[in-house]
Specification:
Pfam families: DUF5678. Helices cover 28% and strands 31% of the residues. It is α+β, with helices and mostly antiparallel strands and 68 residues long. The chain has one domain. The chain has a 4-stranded antiparallel β-sheet, with helices on both faces.
């Protein structure tokens, strides 16, 4: 289990319903509705890293990317 995934499991995502949340190095990088904008910012700052991306839906979670 990755550091990002462990952090996400402990993360209180209730206020981020229907927003994308992006983690790097076990910490929240950014949250918002425009995933492409967030990923552009992410790649500028961390060009060689792979982000952990999730979207809390309120009735369960949907993880979009992680290297388990």
């Amino acid at each position: 289990m990755t550091k990002n995934f462990k952090s996400y499991l402990k993360f209180d995502d209730k206020k981020y319903k229907d927003e994308y949340i992006v983690f790097i190095k076990g910490k929240l990088f950014k949250a918002g509705k425009d995933l492409l904008k967030i990923l552009k910012e992410f790649k500028k700052k961390y060009p060689k890293e792979t982000p952990f991306i999730a979207k809390p839906l309120g009735c369960g979670n949907y993880i979009l990317n992680d290297n388990f």
